[in-house]
Amino acid sequence: MGKNQREEVNAMKKYEIMYIINPTVLEEGRDELINQINSLLTANGATIAKTEKWGERKLAYPIDKKKSGFYVLTTFEMDGTKLAEVEAKINIMEAVMRHIVVRLD
């Protein structure tokens, strides 16, 4: 593998993470959780482009007997090798009901 190919493999790639926060979490707790996730991303080398709070929305199906959740979308750039570690930490956050990370082209 040549030098240019290695640089391309380790290049920063654009991602989006969408996560749903439990609706029982108060506004201050939501803001704290959003900041915690953004800090987790930046601590792992991510550059955050924007974070959008979509607000509370009805879920397509109940999750943990909840019919709604607070949606947040964050766009960031990151080296993909550290993504699994970030996702593992988000998985154990009790206030996050679901999350998905998508690589943007």
Automatic annotation (TrEMBL):
<dbReference type="GO" id="GO:0070181">
    <property type="term" value="F:small ribosomal subunit rRNA binding"/>
</dbReference>
<dbReference type="InterPro" id="IPR000529">
    <property type="entry name" value="Ribosomal_bS6"/>
</dbReference>
<protein>
    <recommendedName>
        <fullName>Small ribosomal subunit protein bS6</fullName>
    </recommendedName>
</protein>
<comment type="function">
    <text>Binds together with bS18 to 16S ribosomal RNA.</text>
</comment>
<dbReference type="GO" id="GO:1990904">
    <property type="term" value="C:ribonucleoprotein complex"/>
</dbReference>
<dbReference type="GO" id="GO:0005737">
    <property type="term" value="C:cytoplasm"/>
</dbReference>
<dbReference type="GO" id="GO:0005840">
    <property type="term" value="C:ribosome"/>
</dbReference>
<dbReference type="InterPro" id="IPR020814">
    <property type="entry name" value="Ribosomal_S6_plastid/chlpt"/>
</dbReference>
<keyword id="KW-0689">Ribosomal protein</keyword>
<keyword id="KW-0699">rRNA-binding</keyword>
<dbReference type="InterPro" id="IPR035980">
    <property type="entry name" value="Ribosomal_bS6_sf"/>
</dbReference>
<dbReference type="GO" id="GO:0006412">
    <property type="term" value="P:translation"/>
</dbReference>
<comment type="similarity">
    <text>Belongs to the bacterial ribosomal protein bS6 family.</text>
</comment>
<dbReference type="GO" id="GO:0003735">
    <property type="term" value="F:structural constituent of ribosome"/>
</dbReference>
<keyword id="KW-0694">RNA-binding</keyword>
<dbReference type="InterPro" id="IPR014717">
    <property type="entry name" value="Transl_elong_EF1B/ribsomal_bS6"/>
</dbReference>
<keyword id="KW-0687">Ribonucleoprotein</keyword>
<dbReference type="Pfam" id="PF01250">
    <property type="entry name" value="Ribosomal_S6"/>
</dbReference>
